[in-house]
Amino acid sequence: MSNLKNAFSQGKAFIPFITCGDPDLATTAQVVTAAAANGADIIELGIPFSDPTAEGPVIQAANIRALKGGVTTDKIFAMVQELRRNIKIPLVFMTYANVVYSYGAERFLEQCAAVKMDGLILPDLPYEEKEEFAPLCRTHGLDLVSLVAPTSEKRIAMIAREAEGFLYIVSSLGVTGVRAEIKTDLAAIMAAVRENTNLPAAIGFGISTPEQAKKMSMLADGVIVGSAIIKILAKYGQDAPPYVGQYVREMKNAIIS
Amino acid sequence: MENSPKSRGRFGIHGGQYIPETLMNAVIELEDAYEHYKQEPAFCEELTALLNEYAGRPSRLYYAAKMTHDLGGAKIYLKREDLNHTGSHKINNVLGQALLAKKMGKTRLIAETGAGQHGVATATAAALMDMECVVFMGAEDTRRQALNVYRMRLLGAKVIPVETGTATLKDAVSEAMREWTSRIADTHYCLGSVMGPHPFPTIVRDFQGVISKEIKEEILQREGCLPTAVIACVGGGSNAMGSFHNFIEDQEVRLIGCEAAGRGIDTADTAATIHTGRLGIFHGMKSYFCQDEYGQIAPVYSISAGLDYPGIGPEHAYLHDIKRAEYVAITDEEAVTAFEYLSRTEGIIPAIESAHAVSYAMKLAPKLAADKIIVVTLSGRGDKDCAAIARYRGEDINE
């Protein structure tokens, strides 16, 4: 059984996103450890990309900080290998198609398997293009996570039917980033998802407060939070790990209570 | 690598639709609308009327007698896209897309721009068709092309300087794509080049195809034969694709795209994608991109804001792969020399982008016999570049 799917079996899942190398990889490793210790069920590790077209200003800035700090895909693999001694929860990479393609998809996925990554999320790889990487992901035992957007409508059925691991439900139009209010009819989207798959679904984009997380967790099986965590990193830098840990705890408590 | 049968809009291995799920229905809706309207006579008539009456088509195919004589080789014809309304070839595509967007019920156009030519063309079409217009332009480019920023504002468009990344064309494209994901229902992304996700490379090529259609008809009429070579500058590659399109089937016609080498293809300060890039996936398409070993997109450089892009349209990448088109690299210095040469020789000030094509014509013409014909597409006029070229030559003038 997929480790990712399994991560939802103990109740609602909390999935934090962290940009690797922001501000440096040592801090990333500590943040991952703190998040795992405080209730994260899956962790999304962002491999920075120079031109992240699906990201809002907060995560764009994190990508720039990380790249300026000299992080590379190889250094991230090395960090994950080290982390895997202690971190047992599922880990997925979130990056852009070119990072995988340019590294050599086969080589990239071999490395992913070697460091025991569980999945891959590529926001610029829609259903029509997923065969570019899906067969290699399968060969190497990673789930290629599919996204459903507020505009997906009739596409939900085909996306859900071929989904792996879990479904990433994009809460709102636009790019990643904290939002005061989420207006999409997520109940209708979730109903369409449920009709077509038994896989768990997690909602992301725009969620930052425990109240929002609780509300979203009532609709779906999990909650993904990125920008709010990156803001903590931007504020505290190398001192961020305990603050991220505390935040993850609050969010996790909000969705299971 | 084989392409998945699900993938649409491929040119060999290039192209595709590598975009967020949020945009997928928008590009599918656009493709459906385009397939419908392109064969609807009323739409075609309306577009032709706009191109002729408003943009001033057909553009002149001017025999550059002095340049031909001076270079002492092939006959040189200049396809005068610089004489179009708004001063460049960009209007051809924009009128087509704006009309299409209008038919689709869209009320708002967004666009990216490098040199400002596409932004000005989009702002113009928006004014004409009563549409709202927002143009994203790299902050660095707003400084290099301040006059065009003013023109866009004068036409009623909102210009948003993009500060992210290298603050140039690629960042403007990224920001326009981000904007489109946040507002789709009433907004059409009027992409300015033969790039991005399908169907844009095809739509833009088709709307720009009027350039080669006119060249072919007129040269056959005047010379009774096809040209030996068609030369155009290439950034994303829209004027080149438009100049090549109707000649692709004519194997005897050499198709030559001129990339911006910047300070040289052996330096980091270049935008010559075919020469220095490698296969990648970016801005919705698979093609060649300037990038580092980890796939991080390289900060590219050219004196020309319009060619300052780290990628190339997927059909160009394909024409390169199958060796149907040749791509050559022209440095800043060579382009500036050609800019000055054409100004003095023919009394035509070309856009610095187009000067890259002129430069290669200056190299090629003397090597060809006098009965051969070269057509150079002058994609735009150079008024916008005068201040920058003056600065390049060490003269500080106020615009």
Alpha-carbon distance between the two ends of chain B: 51 Å
Class of secondary structure makeup of chain B: alpha/beta
- DSSP E strands of chain B, number: 14
Helix and strand run of chain B: EEHHEHEHEHEHHEHEHHEHEHEEHEHHEH
| Percentage of β-strand residues of chain B | 15-25%
Number of helices of chain A: 12
Q: How would you describe the oligomerization state of the chains in this entry?
A: heterodimer
The residue fraction in helices of chain A comes out at: 40-55%
Could you characterize the architecture of this molecule?
The complex is a heterodimer of chains A (257) and B (399). Chain A is α/β, with parallel strands linked by helices and 257 residues long. Chain A has one domain (12-145, 208-256): TIM Barrel, CATH 3.20.20. Helix content of chain A is 46%, strand content 14%. An eight-stranded parallel β-barrel of chain A has the order 1-2-3-4-5-6-7-8, surrounded by seven helices. In chain A, helix 9 links the parallel strand 6 (167-170) and strand 7. In chain A, helix 5 crosses helix 6 (105-114) and helix 10 packs across helix 12. The longest helix of chain A has 17 residues, at 240-256. With 399 residues, chain B is α/β, with parallel strands linked by helices. Chain B has two domains: 20-50 and 90-204, Rossmann fold, CATH 3.40.50.1100; 56-87 and 209-392, Rossmann fold, CATH 3.40.50.1100. Helices cover 43% and strands 19% of the residues of chain B. In chain B, the strands form three sheets. Chain B has a six-stranded mixed sheet with strand order 3-4-14-9-10-13, sandwiched between helices. Chain B has a four-stranded antiparallel sheet with strand order 1-2-12-11. In chain B, strands 7-6-5-8 form a four-stranded parallel sheet, sandwiched between helices. In chain B, helix 2 (41-54) crosses helix 4, helix 5 (117-128) runs parallel beside helix 7 (146-154) and helix 14 (332-346) packs across helix 15 (352-364). Chain B is globular and about 55 Å long. The termini of chain B are far apart. The A-B interface holds A 49-51, 53-54, 56, 60, 67, 72-74, 96-103, 123-132, 146-153, 155, 159, 170, 173-175 and B 4, 6-8, 16-26, 164-165, 170-171, 174, 177-178, 181-184, 278-284, 286, 289, 291, 293-297.
